[in-house]
Every structure is written in C-alpha cells, then in structure tokens.
C-alpha cells in the first residue's frame, strides 16, 4: 500500500479556491447538459437519428427545432466539459505538488498524529477491493473522508460530487484527507484508473452522519 502524508498549506489555498469554482462550474454544466438530454429523451430521439422522413420532409413526431437546438447545445456543453476537466486535472496536480513539497521540507512537523480537524466529514469508506486503486492508495474500510480533492464540507453537496471528481481525475493523483478510527488524520493520494474490478476506484463511498470527531 502507498501511504503518503501531505500537509495542506496556505500556498495551496488559492488553488483550492479556484478548484471549488471550477467544480461549481462543472456542476452547472452537467445540470444544463442533463436538461438538454431530457429534451431529446422526451422526443424519443438521440443525437444521430434523421430529422426528416423517407420523403425528405421534417418529421412530424418530433419537435425538429427543439431537437436541433438541444443537439447543438449538447455538443457545445460536452466540449466545454472536456476543457473544464483538463483544467480541473491541472489544478489537482498543482495542489498535490504544492502540498507534497511542503510536507517534504517541513520535516519537523509530526505526521499521522492527532490534529485539529478543519472540515466536517463528508463520506465514509465501505468495502475496499483487493488490488484496487483504493487499496493501493491506503484507504481502508470505515475511513472517514474529510477532503476529497477540492471537495470538503464547505462545498460538498452529495456523493455525486465525489463520483464526478473521480471521473474527472482518471489517471490523476487526487489528494485525500481521511480520519482513522484511532483519531489520526492522514493524507493519502488516490489515482482513479481502470483495474480488474468494477469502476475506477475499487471501494464504496457511503453517506456519513453523526460521526464523532
């Protein structure tokens, strides 16, 4: 298992704030994308089916104007999301680099020791699959997630935020702060990627309520 410890530094805070803004923008784009996909679904049509009948006339069973507009917006939003995901990935790397460098230079600070918790828990780790990215990162069952990349209790909305961060961070190091049963706070690094099991991580993220801190 990889068990790397990093400190969250003041130098990385501006980048984390930018990441929060990018994540909010991504959430808005995903909501807009869903709205246009719902329009296509309501018309019982996808992105590629013809909008004219066999005689070349506009189809009467769909709202042609609405479908054309929805298809155009879907393509634009998907392109925007791809560009945004790259920017999120770049900033995730930057946070990891800044905090990792600070941890290496500040050797006088104890690691993996009880420390004040700056954020409330946002999730709990369920079962961890053997030989998965989660296991290689050092995650274990019942770890309490305090920070997951740019996500913490100040901007966390639902477990979907974590899922979106995982999808955006494929083959990218995502810094995570966890709280262990013994009360120690640890910084780990998760790299989501395909493996022999299902998904990109190899563990379950569960809702957490009334966690004693």
TrEMBL record:
Residues 19-97 form the Nas2 N-terminal domain. Belongs to the proteasome subunit p27 family. GO terms for cellular component: cytoplasm; nucleus; proteasome complex. Residues 125-180 form the PDZ domain. Pfam families: Nas2_N, PDZ_6. One of its GO terms (biological process) is proteasome regulatory particle assembly. InterPro entries: Nas2_N, PDZ_6, PDZ_sf, PSMD9. The lineage of its organism: Eukaryota, Metazoa, Ecdysozoa, Arthropoda, Hexapoda. This is 26S proteasome non-ATPase regulatory subunit 9. It comes from Diaphorina citri (Asian citrus psyllid). Keywords: Chaperone, Proteasome. Gene3D superfamilies: 2.30.42.10, 6.10.140.1710. The gene is LOC103512670.
């Amino acid at each position: 298992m990889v068990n790397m410890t990093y400190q969250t530094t003041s130098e990385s805070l501006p980048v984390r704030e930018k990441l929060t803004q990018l994540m909010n923008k991504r959430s808005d784009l995903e909501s807009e994308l869903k709205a246009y996909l719902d329009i296509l679904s309501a018309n019982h049509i996808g992105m590629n089916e013809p909008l004219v009948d066999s005689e070349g006339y506009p189809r009467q069973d769909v709202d042609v104007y609405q479908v054309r507009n929805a298809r155009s917006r879907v393509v634009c939003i998907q392109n925007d999301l791809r560009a945004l995901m790259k920017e999120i990935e770049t900033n995730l790397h930057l946070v990891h680099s800044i905090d990792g460098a600070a941890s290496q230079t500040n050797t006088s600070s104890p690691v993996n020791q009880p420390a004040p918790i700056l954020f409330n828990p946002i999730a709990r780790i369920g079962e961890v699959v053997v030989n998965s990215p989660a296991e290689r990162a050092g995650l274990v069952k019942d770890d309490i997630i305090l920070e997951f990349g740019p996500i913490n209790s100040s901007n966390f909305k639902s477990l979907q935020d974590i899922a979106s961060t995982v999808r955006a961070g494929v083959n990218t190091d995502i810094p995570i702060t966890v709280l262990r049963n013994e009360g120690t706070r640890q910084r780990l690094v998760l790299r989501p990627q395909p493996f022999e099991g299902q998904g990109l991580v190899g563990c379950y993220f569960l809702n957490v309520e009334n966690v004693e801190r």
